[in-house]
């Protein structure tokens, strides 16, 4: 229910068609002498709206909609549409838009009710109407235009042969998709919560989230008005809570009565009603392809997005808009279907990432129950990462400022510029320059490049600047250009850099990351061929097990007990040199498939001795190394551990195991866990996207109580503020943004108008501390909206 914007594909169809015709000279984009015969399977909003658009754009088209159910059959009650989607409808078909406008119920507030406290955030701009009313409007429009609507009728199997175009809008259980599964290659993922669509006979005055902590576990209510006298009510809970509460043994009537009793206060003592309602589990649908010959998928048949961001009907309507536009613009059907998929796929993928984040937040709701009340509310509102600190402040400044004040932000201080303490080290802000391998050392010695690289980023204002992975032995390097801490000469070179940071960027801490390449060593620098073996000068590799990283990679030797002892001592010796070199913090690298990570993952540790097998044995050597390093590292200086919280591969480290790994290191004295993912096996399948790794840090933080550092496609100061204020992380580490802009943190302060102690400009640079004004600054900022 929280997705703002993003309605690409909703452009004015008339303008798009005109632009296309102008660009292609006198020939129209489609040959109107032979109008399309179009069959649409499924009479839901997406299929009906596609039928109306296609018929309106070309009345000569023969369009038939096949729907197996009666015309008034629908599941659920209300539909929420965003202003962006409505804008597309208004341009494409003003008559449908006007009919919708007459029936919409509008409201601005979101209420979050948790532990007898209600917190309200305003300025969100919702609009909803009943599902049956939406269908009535689309039925009327289709009939007025001459669309052939066939209810109570199964779609014939030979439609692709008898029609020019077949639009499969037959829903999440699409028969069309399954019939051609070998072409569409669908992936359907079931999730952990049960939910049921119900309705109340009165209108909520806001969008309402209510949390019930029962003896069986946590349950939640999602509710919103869709008519002057009615509201949609969705009850959701994890599968194990559903079973524990006995819902699996109750009939429909008993189930509904139990829900009404649990949420009696929210429902004002009123009953709930059903409409073909049944408990179900949400399933995410993804298809590798959306078309096959003259058959194309639309709406839930092609993709689904969890109802908590309310995008099912919205996405289907926008699919219809885009498909109609592409059919007008392109010269052949094949080109039109390809253009439709190219236009819609990125939008859908982005929405599905947001929906997945929202879905998982509610699956793990129990983790957040003990947060301070307003922080809990802020966390819920920003769960999908579509709503952020900055745009929530635009919507409701008072609410956001209250959350900041309870978090401990002094007036005018963004969350990212609040201090954070790790053992004896206080960081002046929450920004970390993430470790980034530079492959620019000679014989492991950092030189002028490292001084300039790390010195520039230290003067750029970050609270903590981390070195690249610094290797503990010559054999433990990734490439010949890797820096080390296995000689006194290397330690002296690092001392030069730490002195510079402490002298020229006072208040910025510098940390060292110690690691050993394991089976991923003896390779070329990244820009010459990432993970490719050297053409000459290779050195032998060692690892937890004798498994090469890639098919063409060198096969490492499995480490013996004696070698394990030697490597443990190498780490301890490197830590002693790091302490003498003046580093403020030490991080042990147990991620990304390097040596210690190789022991943790079941995909790379096949040992049968005391260091392999179940997780507690796979942890043994990394913990031994941690203990050896912690014993020699100064007691007042903090020590962190970087882990890969998932291998993004079947059979690899699970999210539950990642929590146990973090808990084990914390028990041995780790002050924070730096939570990364992947790079453990070459055949991984990461789910890339904005802030895509942060949910793993979030889970570890709330499950263990250990401070965490979040990484992974965090690119804006707004993201940092959002993650910090929501309590999903304690620190944010950014890599590429600091390559683009060494002064990223100071520029973030300037852009937010912050001049406090969390962002201190070096004296020679203070004249540039004010953001240049390049245009008007008094123009009003646009009001943002949310909606399904």
UniProtKB/TrEMBL annotation:
The keyword Oxidoreductase applies. It is an enzyme of class 1 (oxidoreductase). One of its GO terms (molecular function) is FAD binding. Residues 763-788 are annotated as: Disordered. Pfam families: FAD_binding_3, Oxidored_FMN. Residues 164-352 form the FAD-binding domain. Its EC number is 1.6.99.1. Keywords: Oxidoreductase. Signal peptide: none annotated. Residues 416-749 form the NADH:flavin oxidoreductase/NADH oxidase N-terminal domain. This is NADPH dehydrogenase.
